[in-house]
Amino acid sequence: MSQAQSTLDELISKDYEHGFETLLDMDVIPPGLSEDVVRVISAKKNEPEWLLEWRLAAYRHWLTMTPPEWASVHYPPINYADIIYYAAPKSQKDGPKSLDEVDPELLKTYDKLGIPLHERAILAGIAVDAVFDSVSVATTFKDKLAEVGIIFCSFSEAVHEHPDLVRQYLGSVVPVSDNYFTALNSAVFSDGSFCYIPPGVRCPMELSTYFRINAKNTGQFERTLIVADAGAQVSYLEGCTAPMRDENQLHAAVVELVAMEKATIKYSTVQNWYPGDKEGKGGIYNFVTKRGECRGDHAKISWTQVETGSAITWKYPSVVLKGDHSIGEFYSVALTNHRQQADTGTKMIHIGRHTRSTIVSKGISAGRGQQAYRGLVRVAKSAVGARNYTQCDSLLLGDQCQAHTFPYIEVKQPQATVEHEASTSRISEDQLFFCRSRGLSPEDAVSMIVNGFCKEVFKELPMEFAVEAQKLLGVSLEGSVG
Amino acid sequence: MLEIRNLTAEVDGKAILKGIDLTVQAGEVHAIMGPNGSGKSTLSSILAGRDGYTITGGTVTYQGQDLLALPAEERARSGVFLAFQYPVEIPGVSNIYLLKAAVNARRRHIGLPELDAMDFLSLVREKVKFMEMDESMLYRAVNEGFSGGEKKRNEILQMIMLEPSLALLDETDSGLDIDALKVVSKGVNSLRSPDRAMILVTHYQRLLDYITPDQVHVLSAGRIVKSGGPELAHELERQGYAWLGDGAPARGTAPGAAR
Ligand SMILES: Nc1ncnc2c1ncn2[C@@H]1O[C@H](COP(=O)(O)OP(=O)(O)OP(=O)(O)O)[C@@H](O)[C@H]1O
Ligand SMILES: [Mg+2]
């Protein structure tokens, strides 16, 4: 820590009279970030030396960086010295003992969303053992996956059980220094998921339920790494339609996907973090870096996301199309209501020959929601025959919300085809009256029209997820009509 | 069934309905004719509960209750149906989805269980066939890319699915070819029953060749200026509105009481 110190760093370090040894004894370490904190996190997780060095390098790099300011989102500066970077997973003893003790409002929402009964208990934070044995469920899944050679476990576990794989791929798609939040995440990431599909294997199930149950307590700096080896196929579902509350305001996750030759990765997200109250207070800042790399020929990576939560969303799932004939897809529904802000989009980087990408972005703004689509399509000189199609539609509800579109197109390959279509529309009085005259309430009418607007994206979601997502939009729009 | 008393209404400060009186008994079919801009669609929209009109006076009683006090969706659920002069398109929402939502909203309201997917499907297939429509129309987005005639047929499909007590048809016959006119009329006639009433807004006698009304009214400049039996429509067809005197100010006729 002898490099040029910023004022930020001074501020950070003054909280640390405790020292490494003392910190190690604590379940929750005091707020603030320093090399000691990074060491403690690594030590608590019993990590190998190389990973500690990797974290430290990331931390040192982070110190030299400044938070990005180009996105169309506004929030007071985050005081990184106020954040707690390590807390042992909370014991469930303090949680509610049964559904009777859970906030009825929360239960009402679960009901509207049609969340299965046994999952409601888990989501509401009831001690899982009291409901059913999640460990055995997880083990059953794991056994089934292990039969075909698939590795699917927590990131921490992967570091110990499969260090070579982790070391080979970690940071290979999203470099530590990619941006302010990736550097921060790399220094302090808490946990996440690791998945490896061996050559030629088709994952026999959607990787979902398991994740949903275990999604709790992954912390605010989540790290996910998915590798599909040659010819492998996997569909991964992240997130949950039930509103997720979290004490941590800042979430900065990193997701890396690697698809080798002829491999396919389909990554679907439903993000419903707490958006804050109607005035925008208390919501989560979700600053995520998601990137996939099609490393081999004919590889395919497809992102589908439904973003309805968070106070601020800053997220651009991207695909680097290196392999010839590789395919990148991005299907997105983003909804901002009340005072939510979202700056989201994608990057498609065409490097290989005959690479193709499709972008379908549907933005819905209601209330005082602020939304920007920011998309980059870059076609390198090498990408002979590359093709991109972008469709970017905005739907506005009310006259106090806003939607902006920022398409960036950089084409160095003269024979590439890049198409961009954009539209902005409103739900018309005529449509609303028509639906009401058929007996639908204004809320149901809006929800139906909005779901119609999102149809092209929803059809990319796995079936049961799509049904939940539709309901979720309805619930998220509550209070936006009338 | 429906009793309108001295109804006056305006839009943006402009008086459009200037005192409508109309009584429709259960089992009756009334036709409303009248020049463009006379207020026919305005009347239908107000009855169906569209926002944006200021009711400045009068009352509307439907099945004993104050119709104007109900929001549009509750009127629909209690059996009021409007077939639109210009049906709107709803991209991405399939016809069958809308129909199911509408039918079940009405069923819930009258205390019937919602139809499950299978029962609904067999019902809607039967009605689609009756309307001589292609089943594929069910899976297309509501009215999107439908031809003018197809949209009108689709309105009647919705009507026969919902089995309203009071149907308001705003120029459903406009833009229909002869065959479509017959099919639409068949749909309307299939619903005629002693416990239903219908109001047909039309410009043409030919619809009334297929659906014989009990009464015909002429609406002009926001008032009903003449009422009569089916023969009134024939008279209008021959002579136009000018012979009525009042109510066709655009044609420059002198004002005068026709009632
Ligand atoms: N929202 C509005 N703003 C201003 N004027 C309106 C509005 N709605 C209706 N009007 C006016 O009210 C009058 C009656 O219109 P309405 O649509 O009821 O006529 P109509 O009898 O149905 O005519 P048509 O035979 O052409 O369908 C017209 O002069 C019309 O321009
Ligand atoms: Mg009209």
Explain this structure to me?
The complex is a heterodimer of chains A (482) and B (259). In chain A, helix 12 (209-214) links the parallel strand 2 and strand 3. Chain A has helices at residues 7-13, 19-25, 35-44, 49-63, 104-113, 117-123, 128-131, 134-147, 155-161, 163-169, 180-188, 209-214, 429-436, 442-453, 455-458, 463-476, and strands at 151-154, 191-197, 222-228, 233-239, 250-251, 254-259, 264-271, 285-294, 300-307, 312-315, 318-321, 327-336, 341-350, 356-365, 370-379, 387-396, 402-411, 417-426. In chain A, strands 1, 2, 3, 5, 6, 8, 10, 11, 13, 15 and 17 form an eleven-stranded mixed β-sheet that branches. Chain A is an alpha/beta fold and 482 residues long. Chain A has one domain (20-429). The radius of gyration of chain A is 22 Å and the shape is globular. Chain A starts with 6 loop residues before the first helix and ends in a 6-residue tail after the last helix. The longest helix of chain B is centred in the middle third of the chain and has 15 residues, at 95-109. Chain B is 34% helix and 27% strand. Chain B has eight helices and twelve strands. In chain B, the strands form three sheets. A six-stranded mixed β-sheet of chain B has the order 6-9-10-3-11-12, sandwiched between helices. In chain B, strands 2-1-4-5 form a four-stranded antiparallel β-sheet, with helices on one face. Chain B has a single domain, classed as Rossmann fold (3-Layer(aba) Sandwich). Chain B is globular, with a radius of gyration of 18 Å. In chain B, a hairpin with a 2-residue loop joins strand 11 and strand 12. The relative contact order of chain B is 0.18. Mean pLDDT of chain B is 90; it is low at 247-259. Chain B has 259 residues and is an alpha/beta fold. Chain B starts with a strand and ends in a 20-residue tail after the last helix. The structure holds adenosine-5'-triphosphate and magnesium ion. Residues 11-12, 14, 16, 34, 36-42, 52, 85 of chain B line the site of adenosine-5'-triphosphate (ATP).
